[in-house]
Amino acid sequence: MSETILITGASGHLGRLVLDTLLASGKVAPANLIATSRDTAKLSEYAARGVTVRAADFDDPASLDAAFAGAGKVLIISTDALDKPGRRLAQHEAAVAAAKKAGAKHILYTSMPQPDDSLVTFAPDHLGTEKAIKATGIPYTILRDGWYAENLFMSLPHALQTGSWYTSTGQGKIAHITRADTAAALAGAILKAGSESTTYTLTGLKGRTADEIAAVVSAATGKPLNVVHVTDEQLAEGLKGAGLPEAVIPTVVSFDANTREGKIAMVTTDAETLSGRPLTTLEDFVAANKAALLG
């Protein structure tokens, strides 16, 4: 493959895995990869391998214009700027504009499942970005990434210590997918991207309720884990009591509410098809990360 591929957020967990997968595939020469980050020093190991490294600040459109120059395919990995309403969408729109200005032939973007029908507080950012990409007229690949299995690290280590996992997800299901499997699917989508526009939803292959997840975790760790079903209001009070910043609480609660209402329950084979390899099961993921879960 001779077309230049640009990856934003390349120094982050997901960006690095995408870079690693593309380089390991043997289908992309390092010289045909552009890795961008606000801090290029974090990408020095890739620069040493021949990857072009450029500084890109999503809050500075001029830096994006320079960073995107000459890119044929552009993967925009969504930012984590949730501190100010509207900031992340503005960042994404700036990146989309830079891709168009650079004459990109294909835009890929990491969105979220069902952004047009979601209770998650930041869903409008993703929906707005998808609309901005479609408005360019450039062929696109929207990759609606499901919830990472790694997200379980945010709640389960503490829950295992206390023996109780408080959640308002009810009987809603999630088909967690590992970050590595997501990255492999993204790399596959980049290699596949051409003149057609496509939307994929990346999930694990089996949806589970909190009770079912807890059973898997308990079996792997040997520690009891009781799921305590609470209301959204009770969950918010508990999070506040635990010291979580108040600005973050509505977003965390919206995850559970979204799950309870079945808006993240979808299961697809898109990730497995794009990556060309079997996905990691939740059982294997938990077993491999037993030490991290036990703290």
Structure in words:
- The chain has 295 residues and is of the alpha/beta class.
- The protein is globular.
- α5 links the parallel β5 and β6.
- α1 (13-25) packs across α7, α4 (87-101) packs parallel to α5 and α9 runs antiparallel to α10.
- The chain contains 13 helices and nine strands.
- The chain has helices spanning 13-25, 44-47, 61-68, 87-101, 123-135, 156-162, 179-192, 210-221, 232-241, 249-260, 270-275, 282-288, 290-294, and strands at residues 5-7, 33-37, 52-55, 73-76, 106-111, 140-145, 164-167, 198-202, 226-229.
- It has a seven-stranded parallel sheet, sandwiched between helices.
So how many helices? Answer: 13
- The N- to C-terminal Cα distance equals 43 Å
Q: What is the element string, with H for helices and E for strands?
A: EHEHEHEHEHEHEHEHEHHHHH
Would you tell me the overall average pLDDT?
A: 96
Q: Which structural class is indicated by helix and strand composition? A: alpha/beta
Radius of gyration: 19 Å
The major beta sheet can be summarized as: 7 strands, parallel
**Percent of residues in beta strands?**
5-15%
Shape: globular
Report the helical percentage: 40-55%
Low-pLDDT parts are none
Strand order, main sheet: write it out. Answer: 3-2-1-4-5-6-8
State the total count of DSSP E strands: 9
Describe the structure concisely:
The chain has helices at 13-25, 44-47, 61-68, 87-101, 123-135, 156-162, 179-192, 210-221, 232-241, 249-260, 270-275, 282-288, 290-294; strands spanning 5-7, 33-37, 52-55, 73-76, 106-111, 140-145, 164-167, 198-202, 226-229. With 295 residues, the protein is α/β, with parallel strands linked by helices.
